[in-house]
Design goal:
heterodimer; A: alpha/beta; six-stranded mixed β-sheet; 20 strands; about 30% helix; B: mainly alpha; 15 helices; about 75% helix
């Protein structure tokens, strides 16, 4: 497939943006963005949450129309009013959340929308042949007759990439593609991206993980607050410099925890099993022990039972099999507990989904600060604005929540500050056990530092912390012991000291077992 | 849905909806050959003239109770469509208290028991769908609608059978004792030395005002109200916070049903002094539109209730004044207001947002 000789000519950029701006209400998502993406490169766009990188990608893919500015593709001015326009210009996009029909086969998903003719059969053989050719050319092996539902996440992503290439994409945009992948799958994805580049295509990689940018990109553009603040050759820069550009100031390296002696066990679980409503086994034979003054990191690819485990430990879901022991209570199927009872026993819970669960978004910050703490809301059966205010103000000060307005609805805070409201509330009063689900998901780098420092401080005050995170870096930075989950089972427990991402990655995919600690 | 600032949502939008409803009504009026402005003048006169205002407030009382019923449940995102049936049962509670206790207790005491009876019977009729929703997952919209039919059937059976006034062929009970009733406002005023035109307005209206205040306190000043609002916005978050969601749903429905049942105080204990078939006359359903227009806030419901009261009273007046405007046509005009402020309450939200907000931010 020779597409190099486009009208733009050799040397001209594949994508050229000039003065692109996009505003959503009062928010300026993109401003004065000038960007050249050269053919035959992997171009990274990095930035914190809300820096405007997804908006920029959506403009190139025709999902949004820019308020101002011009776009040229292969040297020709392009008016992109819809993804169909973008596809016609050879732009393809792989979204963070896959757009596949799970009950269709790979082939059916690829041909969706381009079946060609009334009778399905007529186009199918042709499409199958072209698909197989594409797969081989780019090292994207996948069985065309496999049901998408049966494929692991990494392969589903391949199907998305194939879909885009099949529609003639030479400019492939990937939005946070590694969020759901194991380290091993990430490596394989990068091999594919290099193959696309080798075939003369362009890859635009949107991410917030700097290590990956350094691993695969040729050029990196950094965005901050809607503007492009820098562009570097990947070979000429460091992750430190990029982080500084992203945040706009120096970022300190998180100190490794001291790994001080852990205290007595405070929460134990044994033989936990869980089946969802459809009867699928999500947890099987899970044992764990949390000790005072210790952080136990729970690593694993998203969807391997971590959420179910958090739900059971916090009594959001009933125990079906096995038991939980906490503060002298034994909780099992016959003796269930409620979330309120667990809280009263000294359990705090930062839920993975803060917007659905951890906060009531239309409620004011001070109302959210007493969620699950009715005793702080006012005397007896009454709520009192003054009482809630008095409870909230120190929390705002301690976590530097901005704006420091206890009466602003939670929906009015940024993602990082929303998370700080949840953390401030749950950290308050030094809980005996803290369940900490994805504490820094969608949070700025600057805020991550603050949050990690607070987690360390809470541990030093003697709380037992279960940290669930899909970010291996976070677990390696904070945890004393690391427990890896795979397919609803504990794949192993290892001390954090000496653990490597590679070793953990293999355990996450079930390829290696760790010793019990 | 586009989010509007509070002042737009609660202040401007209802007025826009009302204006459009009146515009549509003007077209209808013009089509039958009357001049819209004349008709509206009669409507206003009919609703607010000194001799009519009592009627307007009397109708408003019904709307306030049923509107509060819908709004309270909706705080927990429960669509209580069953206010109609709950009001019927409230009437049954009043009638049973009066008919059975009149011989043995003094009138004032029977009146108190009747008030409690109205609330309890209304609550009981709402608790069953509430329980089914909370513990069995039966959708509350479906069950409350079905309970309206059950209530209707029950009333027909009782009033044409066991409770029918002996020796008469119409579906109603005998009159209650003279001492057992909520006094009319014109009688009370006369007692204080003021003359007021006769109207069906009775002590239920101040009760309705008290109910507005009580609902406001409950929703925004108690922990139970906090729990209801939390459930309404995010049931997941409520469960996470340790709120017993199921129990709260049942209690919310009970309170909602009690408010709907109190509508019977106005009609049965205040005006008719007997239980008649179909006294609820659709007020329970219109209450949903009242709650929507009042944005589920007691003050808004008070305002919307007064508006609907005025429309009902003024609409009745049109019938007398214009030959071409029949009772049915007056209903059409009322229906248009219900349609625009109820069913289409949010139709103009995006336009209003674009029109007013884009201008104020000074499009860049």
């Amino acid at each position: 497939m020779d597409r190099n000789g486009g009208p733009g000519g050799a040397g001209g950029p594949a994508v050229r943006l000039r003065g692109v701006a996009k505003r959503f209400g009062a928010v300026l998502a993109n401003e004065d963005v000038d960007l050249d993406i050269l053919p035959g490169t992997v171009h990274g766009i990095v930035g914190e949450n809300g820096a405007g990188k997804s908006t920029l990608a959506s403009i190139i893919y025709g999902l949004y129309t820019a308020d101002r500015g011009s776009i040229e593709i292969d040297g020709r001015p392009a008016v992109l009013r819809s993804p169909a326009d973008a596809i016609a210009h050879g732009v393809g996009m792989v979204h963070q959340h896959f757009m596949l029909v799970p009950t269709f086969t790979v082939l059916e998903n690829v041909m969706l929308g381009m079946e060609g003719g009334f009778r399905l059969r007529s186009g199918e053989a042709d499409i199958r042949a072209r698909l197989e050719g594409l797969s081989r050319a780019h090292g994207l092996e996948v069985d065309p007759d496999a049901l998408v539902d049966d494929l692991p996440v990494g392969l589903r992503q391949r199907v998305e990439i194939l879909k885009a290439l099949f529609r003639g994409a030479r400019i492939l945009i990937l939005d946070e593609p590694t969020g759901v992948l194991t380290p091993d799958e990430t490596d394989r994805l990068f091999t594919v991206l290099r193959a696309v580049r080798g075939a003369g295509g362009v890859v635009v990689l949107i991410t917030h993980k700097l290590r990956e940018v350094m691993a695969v990109c040729d050029t990196v553009s950094v965005m901050r607050r809607g503007r492009l603040v820098g562009q570097r050759g990947a070979a000429d820069t460091t992750t430190g410099e990029l982080a500084e550009l992203m945040v706009g100031r120096k970022v300190g390296q998180a100190a490794r925890p001291s790994g001080g002696a852990a205290g007595t066990p405070v929460l134990g679980a044994s033989g936990l099993g869980w089946k969802n409503a459809a009867g699928a086994v999500r947890l099987q034979g899970v044992d764990l022990e949390l000790r005072a003054g210790e952080i136990l990191g729970l690593a694993g690819v998203s969807g391997n039972g971590q959420s179910e485990l958090l739900d059971i430990l916090s009594a959001m879901s009933p125990v079906q099999e096995g038991h939980v022991e906490f503060a002298g209570r034994r909780i099992n199927a016959a003796h269930p507990a409620t979330p309120a009872e667990m809280r009263a026993l000294g359990l705090a819970h930062v839920p993975e989904d803060r917007q659905q669960r951890g906060l009531v978004l239309p409620f004011e910050a001070r109302e959210n600060a007493v969620l699950g703490r009715p005793e702080s809301a006012g005397p007896g059966p009454w709520t009192s604005g003054a009482a809630m205010q008095a409870h909230t103000e120190p929390l705002i000060a301690r976590f530097d929540i901005r704006p420091p307005d206890p009466r602003l609805p939670a929906a009015g805070f940024s993602g990082g500050n929303q998370q700080k409201i949840v953390l401030a509330r749950e950290f308050d009063g030094a809980p005996r056990v803290l369940l900490l689900g994805q504490p820094t998901r969608g949070v700025d780098i600057g805020t991550i530092e603050t949050i990690h420092a607070q987690v360390q401080a809470l541990k030093e005050r003697g709380s037992a912390i279960l940290l669930v995170s899909t970010e291996l870096d976070e677990i390696l930075a904070l945890a004393d012991r690391i427990m890896v989950m795979n397919g609803g089972r504990i794949a192993g427990v290892v001390p954090a000291k000496g653990a490597t991402p590679r070793q953990l990655g293999l355990m996450m995919t079930g390829a290696a077992e760790g010793g019990a600690v | 849905m586009t989010a509007l600032p509070r002042w737009l949502d609660t202040g401007v939008l209802p007025v826009v909806n009302l204006a459009l409803a009146l515009l549509a009504a003007a077209v209808v009026v013009a089509l039958v050959g009357e001049h819209p402005l004349d008709v509206f003048a009669v409507l206003l006169q009919g609703a607010f003239a000194p001799g009519s205002i009592g009627y307007t407030l009397y109708y408003a009382t019904n709307f306030i109770f049923t509107g509060l019923a819908a709004a309270l449940a909706f705080q927990a995102r429960l669509f209580n469509i069953g206010a109609e049936g709950q009001a019927m049962l409230g009437g049954l509670g009043v009638a049973l208290a009066c008919l059975s206790l009149e011989p043995v207790l003094p009138g004032a005491l029977v009146t108190v028991v009747a008030i409690v009876g109205a609330a309890l019977f209304g609550a009981a009729w709402a608790v069953v769908p509430g329980w089914l929703q909370a513990y069995r997952g039966s959708h509350i919209v479906i069950t409350t609608i079905m309970f309206n039919f059950l209530a209707s059937g029950l009333m027909v059976w009782l009033l044409s059978g066991p409770m029918m006034r002996p020796g008469q062929g119409s579906p109603q009970t005998r009159l209650f004792d003279e001492a057992v009733r909520l006094p009319a406002v014109h009688d009370l005023l006369r007692g204080l030395g003021f003359e007021a035109a006769r109207s069906p307005l009775n002590l239920s209206f101040p009760f309705a005002l008290l109910a507005c205040a009580a609902v406001w306190v409950l929703i925004w000043r108690t922990k139970f109200g906090y729990a209801l609002r939390a459930i309404g916005h995010s049931e997941e978050a409520a469960r996470y916070a340790g709120i017993p969601v199921r129990r709260a749903v049942v209690v919310a429905m009970a309170l909602s049903g009690a408010l709907a049942g109190c509508m019977a105080l106005n009609e049965v204990l205040g005006v008719q002094h007997k239980l008649v078939l179909n006294f609820s006359a659709g007020y329970g359903f219109t209450g949903i539109a009242v709650a929507l227009m009042g944005r589920n806030h007691p003050l808004g419901i008070l305002a919307a209730g007064l508006l609907f009261g005025a429309l009902f009273q003024g609409g009745a007046e049109l019938n007398f004044e214009f030959e071409t405007i029949t009772h049915e046509l007056a209903l059409v005009i009322q229906g248009l207001v219900i349609l625009f402020s109820g069913a289409l309450a949010y139709m103009f939200t995006p336009w209003l947002a674009r029109l007013l907000l884009v201008r104020s931010t000074g499009r860049g």
